[in-house]
């Protein structure tokens, strides 16, 4: 791993910028930022066709607080700084028969805890436009991404180098040793032993970029990921965006994660989407396919590590041999005099999934998302969001039930203190 990090730094520093971020540092205190985000989340998942005697509904409400402090860097050739994370989750409503939404830790009695908290910190160093961060952090790499789909986000523990020495090129190299799950306080919630990642993104122009990443998770797998994103302006109010993603995953080591039939993973998962924007309207079509042995596997390397077009609210459409299509529509009401209000709906259908009991598994999902963000006043940036998902499958092998109706009501308020 040291050689990969050294390579990333060497590549990044081969063409130094004339004026670097470190040269422009104002100091540890002067560049500091302190933010607090409050999130209230109502989460309901209705398993409509579960057998008698099994849990048919999960329904809970929570209030989460996420505080982040990011110091500036000390002045000089090598800048030094610190980051800190503090989180608190409070249970507002739950019940023994309704627990299990992933919002709170669950006790041995099957009930959700009344509250939980977690915290972390990291030290960081900057030379020119290259930053080394060691400690607790959020990540958004396509081969190692922390998830933030519940009350509080996951936190990764490890080392990450980010280099922006060459204009248009961002390089990453990281070594991670544990992950804290969204609803847990245990720093090693997933049992991650070691994950090494390296890669980067290069923007050829303002409209064309590509990414290439590699990761190796001890006793699980190695992954390659590639992406091409091309935006094609047509006029001032019209444009096309094409996005291609592909993963190549293969089991390595003890191969603790296997296909449902016990085979080792050796698969490719790709998606291609095309979006047409005209004024307030965006129309998107996407196709996704998994080939080879096993599902596209992720989770031990972060709950957000699936940069595929048809990974949506409830399903990922990532089963072995599965093919899926998506049709999506977005509307921005700013064009109609209501800035801050957006609407999205989509439909995804998957077929030919090789899952336990059948080689022709089918599933579909329909999502609706409405969000409004206050644009001014004392509560500026306060947002209200409604997310509804309807999911159906040919049997219950995907997500414990063939029929799931899900509703999330989310209120968020980000507050910048410094």
TrEMBL record:
Keywords: Signal, Transport. InterPro entries: OM_porin_bac (IPR005318), Porin_dom_sf (IPR023614). The keyword Lyase does not apply. The keyword Signal applies. Residues 1-19 form the signal peptide. Coiled coil: none annotated. One of its GO terms (molecular function) is porin activity. GO terms for cellular component: membrane. Belongs to the outer membrane porin (Opr) (TC 1.B.25) family. PANTHER family: CHITOPORIN (PTHR34596). This is Porin. The lineage of its organism: Bacteria, Pseudomonadati, Pseudomonadota, Gammaproteobacteria, Pseudomonadales.
């Amino acid at each position: 791993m040291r050689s990969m990090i050294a390579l990333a730094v060497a590549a990044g520093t081969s063409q130094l910028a004339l004026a670097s971020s470190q040269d422009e540092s104002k100091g540890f205190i002067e560049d500091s930022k302190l933010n607090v985000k409050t999130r209230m989340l109502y989460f309901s998942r209705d398993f409509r066709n579960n057998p008698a005697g099994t849990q048919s509904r999960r329904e809970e409400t929570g209030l989460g607080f996420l505080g982040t402090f990011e110091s500036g860097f000390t002045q000089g050739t090598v800048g030094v700084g610190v980051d800190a994370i503090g989180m608190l989750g409070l249970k507002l409503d739950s019940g023994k028969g309704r627990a299990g939404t992933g919002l709170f830790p669950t006790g041995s009695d099957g009930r959700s805890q009344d509250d939980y908290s977690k915290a972390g910190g990291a030290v960081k160093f900057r030379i020119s436009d290259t930053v080394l961060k060691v400690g607790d952090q959020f990540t958004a790499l396509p081969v190692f991404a922390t998830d933030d789909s519940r009350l509080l986000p996951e936190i990764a523990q490890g080392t990450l180098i980010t280099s922006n020495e060459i204009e248009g090129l961002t390089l990453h190299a990281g070594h991670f040793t544990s992950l804290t799950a969204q609803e847990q306080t245990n720093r090693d919630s997933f049992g991650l032993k070691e994950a090494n990642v390296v890669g980067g993104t290069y923007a050829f122009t303002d409209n064309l970029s590509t990414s290439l990443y590699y990761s190796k998770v001890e006793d699980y797998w190695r992954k390659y990921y590639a992406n091409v994103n091309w935006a094609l302006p047509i006029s001032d109010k019209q444009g096309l965006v094409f996005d291609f993603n592909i993963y190549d995953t293969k089991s390595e080591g003890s191969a603790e994660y296997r296909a449902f039939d016990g085979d080792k993973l050796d698969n490719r998962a790709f998606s291609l989407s095309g979006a047409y924007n005209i004024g307030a309207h965006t129309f998107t079509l996407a196709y996704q396919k998994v080939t080879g042995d096993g599902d596209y596997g992720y989770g031990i390397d972060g709950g957000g590590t699936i940069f595929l077009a048809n990974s949506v609210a409830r399903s990922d459409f990532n089963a072995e041999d599965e093919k899926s299509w998506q049709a999506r529509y977005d509307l921005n009401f700013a064009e109609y005099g209501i800035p801050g209000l957006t609407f999205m709906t989509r439909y995804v259908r998957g077929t030919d999934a090789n899952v336990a009991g059948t080689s022709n598994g089918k599933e579909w999902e329909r999502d609706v998302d409405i969000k409004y963000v206050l644009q001014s006043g004392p509560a500026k940036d306060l947002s209200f969001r409604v997310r509804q998902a309807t999911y159906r499958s040919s049997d219950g092998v995907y997500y414990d039930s063939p029929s799931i109706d899900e509703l999330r009501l989310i209120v968020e308020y980000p507050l910048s203190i410094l």
